[in-house]
Amino acid sequence: MTQGGGVSEFTNRLFNVMDRIEYRRIESLEDMEEVSRLRRKAYSKANYQVPAEGDLFIDDIDFDPQAFVFGIYCDEQLISTIRIHHVTPSNRVCASRVVYPDVVDAFLDAGMTLIDPVRHASDPDLFDDLPALPYLTLRIATMASDYFSADRCLSLIPVKHVPFYKRVFRSKQVAEPIPNCKGYDVDATLLAADIPVSLPKVYERYPFFRSHPFERRMMFAPPQELVTPPLTILPTARYLAAA
Predict the structure, then answer these.
(1) Residue 181 belongs to what H/E stretch?
(2) Contacts of 7 (CB under 8 A, 6+ apart)
(3) pLDDT tens for each residue of 133-175
(4) Cross-strand pairs, 233
(5) Is 68 helix (H, G, I), strand (E, B) or coil?
(6) pLDDT-based confidence at 8, cuts 50/70/90?
(7) Distance (Å, rounded) from C-alpha 89 to C-alpha 57?
(8) CB within 8 A of 133, min separation 6: which ones?
(9) In this structure, what DSSP letter does residue 169 have?
(10) Which candidate, 150, 129, 171, places its Cα nearest to that of 216?
(11) Burial environment of residue 176 by CB neighbours within 10 A (0 to 12, 13 to 18, 19 or more)
């Protein structure tokens, strides 16, 4: 937001891109194969570890009952993807726990619930045309944090991305960096955002992260709770800002 309370130019640009965006929960094998190809393309471009040529870039925990794989589409083209884990004391499956088990278990042993957004991959050929891709993709993590009333949102990220997450999400580093982290081949670390404290401030500064409860329900509710599971979900942030 601008100092006078209006919408900033940056936010307006995000809203304009969001008019062309739709989210899809990835569930079919065909869509998972498309996600696999995008993961490989993005991780290869960034010099991160990828599976052997010919193998799908899909993990066993992609199919955990509390994992949600999403595709972000622009003009019907898959441009980005992310996997969200809803981590609870009774279901501790998530990528961050594989790398930092003691840190994650300490949160869970204290009775907290967590959101773990991982496998973030955006089409590197579109960065020049769509520099807002990280915001559009990570918006899903804010929606999950809100929907599940999580206590913390984790960020298992390359060390070089730490300033972005601290600035945008008010995350704090909760673990020492691991050089050449196994499974990623990159110096990685773990951050955590205190959701009840940070999320309202994130919404105030970046209104494009906001979402209507209906949108969050379409994203994360079990299929049996939805009369007709949606094929695509349209962002609602612009309408909330207008209201």
Answers:
(1) none
(2) 1, 15, 207, 241
(3) 899 999 999 999 999 999 999 999 999 999 999 999 999 999 9
(4) 23
(5) strand
(6) confident
(7) 28
(8) 72, 79, 80, 122, 123, 126, 127
(9) H
(10) 150
(11) exposed
Cβ-contact 69, 81 below 8 angstroms: yes
Distance CA 213, CA 141 (A): 14
The CA-CA-CA angle for residues 218, 224, 230, to 5°, reads 35
Q: Which residue has the tokens 């929960």?
A: 25
**Total residue count of the chain as it appears in this document:** 243
The CB-side HSE value for 64 (13 A sphere, CA atoms) comes to 19
Other CB atoms closer than 10 Å to residue 138's CB: what's the count?
Answer: 21
Cβ neighbour number for residue 133 with a 10 Å cutoff: 20
Q: Which domains, from first to last, does the chain contain?
A: 9-26+59-242 (3.40.630.30)
**SS3 (DSSP) at 128:** coil
Token pair belonging to 207: 């209104």
Residue 152 CA to residue 195 CA, distance in Å, equals 5
Average pLDDT over residues 189-206: 96
User: What six digits make up the tokens of 77?
Assistant: 């083209």
Task: Classify residue 197 as exposed, middle or buried by CB count within 10 Å of its CB (0-12, 13-18, 19+).
Answer: exposed
Burial class (CB in 10 A: 0-12, 13-18, 19+), 95: buried
pTM as predicted: 0.92
DSSP letter, residue 36? H
**pLDDT at 4 exceeding the cut of 60:** no
Strand order in the sheet with 77-87: 21-25, 67-74, 77-87, 114-122, 152-158, 188-194, 172-173
